[in-house]
């Protein structure tokens, strides 16, 4: 039971995706006691899982599982392995390590639509939950997308079988995806997106507080958010529940 | 005994208020071994204590007590409960959980002066140390205050019985209270404030290093500072003692 | 063995210097299990070791030693002790605590060339590995250096016997050393530096990701980098190995 239970606050059913950047298993075990119940997905950011010991990666995945949290390596690692011709080795190693999801992205490489479709389907066949991502890591390349193109890419990934589609926001949240160079949300583009795709299938990467606030005020406290840092999980939960100045009594 | 004790550095009697944003009990226990002696108050930031398990909140309060640190929930939680008609439930739950202080603020809601006076006195009657806060969470609303108005509000809270008055700085330290949009201190306003209120009754929220430096260089190493993050407690102590470039040999 | 070992990623022989800002011994022990193998030097930042208990400082140094990591107190503490006439006490206390290196800097004080030469030689005589630093903590003073002056200072320190020379970047990485006020690398100055000094003797302080990326893209994954925060050690290792968008497949 939470403290101040007379407030009868309700916990939602939204998706919250948090980044593991290489924290220690003990740090995570301890932190999960506090905030594990608010996390749906953990992403081992970009290629970080490939520079950590196998035992450590497995140990952390087991800790997450105890809280019902599903894990996957960042899409960059998929891209790295795919581009080196190791896609099947990648899927097998993910299985062996205990990951339950796969992210299929093309943020750092060019992947033709057929290959992305194939990769999503292949990962589904291996029994993974599939999160795809739309967007480029490079500011220059990402800025070439019109919002209508992004929408087409989202739709295509859903058709291919992706369970969720992530809108790129990187760890910085600036000059990327739906954010301008100051990290502010491009609200007109967001509205066009929201009219054209099922928002409950989307996970918005929103590393910064003002971004989390904007999404919550627009879509309600049940909006799916990603690239949350461990340190901000409790803060995000207070934003969702109207317990911080920015969303006070508003959700 | 500290390392390099031949320097005969002295620890002051100032107040240092640190934010607990939902860290784990173990993280805190371990960190306090290093920096517990430099902390006076811990604020469970805004509404974070209401999204954590009762046992965890109590456990952390006990850890803090071992170091003589006094704890309280952020003012936003008071405001939330007060506006929902749960003020007495709030005070009782704080007692039961082991909090020793209460923050009375109106950063996110409108509270007429009579109600603020009443709330401060009520919290005192329940036996709490009372910290009041002056300032608004919203940049627009906060910017409407003239410095002379802030001074009046500070004086009124002290008359009502507040043990300390906090000058709002938020977690960001920008465009709020005494800080401009770049987080720089408005030094003229600070001087007017300092002439009109007892500075030892004030806790300046100063989350960023340049702000801590400015307050220390102006008021000496004994100035009361708040909204310090756990990671910066040791850094702040070096600033207070002239052991970092910014205040080198100056305090 | 790391996860995803089929990628046969190679670990380099570069120097990575990480800042200990006063974290707890337990936090560090746990973190080192994950990233200890990627760290060469730990700097107890500026004067932080002088505000921590002797036992805690010693305990952490021992933990680091288990991973072959060499430790030293920040140069600011040397400057503080030197300017107070406690240089020998300083060297002895460092020995007793278990530090294996000394940083000789003049970032916060004026130190004439003879004194810097003397200090470097003295620290060598005491059996320490010596890291010297070139640069000023103050933005105004640091900006007075022409790049050719910096080069002369680097050369002089190497002649005096410094094992490595650190180029000042502070914890912020802005308006200092080789960085402009936005934290961008001044590439022309870097080229002049690289032509005139042995780069493998230099440790570039590069606290921000874009800076780490620029150095890796210019000098390869073996470049020596410093002022890395604990939280970013794993990230840096992925940058070095081409496993993050910014250096994808490039190193």
UniProtKB/TrEMBL annotation, chains A, B, C:
Family, as annotated: Belongs to the phosphosulfolactate synthase family.
Catalytic class of the enzyme: lyase
Sorted UniProt keywords: Lyase
Protein name (Swiss-Prot/TrEMBL): Phosphosulfolactate synthase
TM ranges: none
Family annotation (InterPro entries): Aldolase_TIM (IPR013785), Arch_ComA (IPR022370), ComA_synth (IPR003830), ComA_synth_sf (IPR036112)
EC number(s) stated in the UniProt entry for this protein: 4.4.1.19
Gene Ontology terms for molecular function: phosphosulfolactate synthase activity
One Gene Ontology term from the biological process aspect of the record: coenzyme M biosynthetic process
Organism listed in the record: Methanococcus vannielii (strain ATCC 35089 / DSM 1224 / JCM 13029 / OCM 148 / SB)
């Amino acid at each position: 039971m939470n403290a101040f239970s007379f407030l009868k606050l309700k916990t939602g059913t939204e998706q919250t995706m948090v980044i593991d950047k290489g924290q220690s298993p003990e740090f995570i075990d301890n932190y999960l006691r506090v905030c594990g119940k608010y996390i749906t997905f953990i992403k081992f950011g970009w290629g970080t899982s490939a520079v950590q010991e196998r035992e450590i990666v497995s140990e952390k995945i087991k800790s997450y599982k105890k809280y019902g949290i599903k894990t996957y390596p960042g899409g960059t690692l998929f891209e790295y392995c795919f581009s080196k011709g190791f896609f099947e080795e990648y899927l097998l190693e993910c299985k062996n390590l205990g990951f339950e999801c796969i992210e299929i992205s093309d943020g750092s490489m060019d992947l033709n639509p057929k290959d992305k479709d194939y990769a999503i389907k292949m990962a589904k066949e291996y029994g993974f939950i599939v999160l795809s991502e739309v967007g480029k890591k490079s500011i220059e390349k990402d800025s070439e997308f019109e919002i209508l193109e992004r929408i087409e890419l989202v739709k295509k990934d859903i058709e291919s079988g992706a369970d969720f589609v992530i809108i790129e926001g990187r760890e910085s949240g600036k000059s990327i995806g739906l954010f301008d160079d100051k990290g502010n949300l491009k609200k007109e583009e967001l509205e066009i997106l929201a009219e054209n795709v099922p928002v409950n299938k989307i996970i918005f990467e929103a590393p910064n507080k003002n971004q989390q606030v904007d999404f919550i005020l627009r879509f309600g406290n049940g909006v799916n958010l990603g690239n949350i840092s461990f340190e901000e999980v409790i803060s995000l939960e207070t934003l969702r529940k109207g317990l911080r100045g920015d969303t006070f009594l508003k959700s």
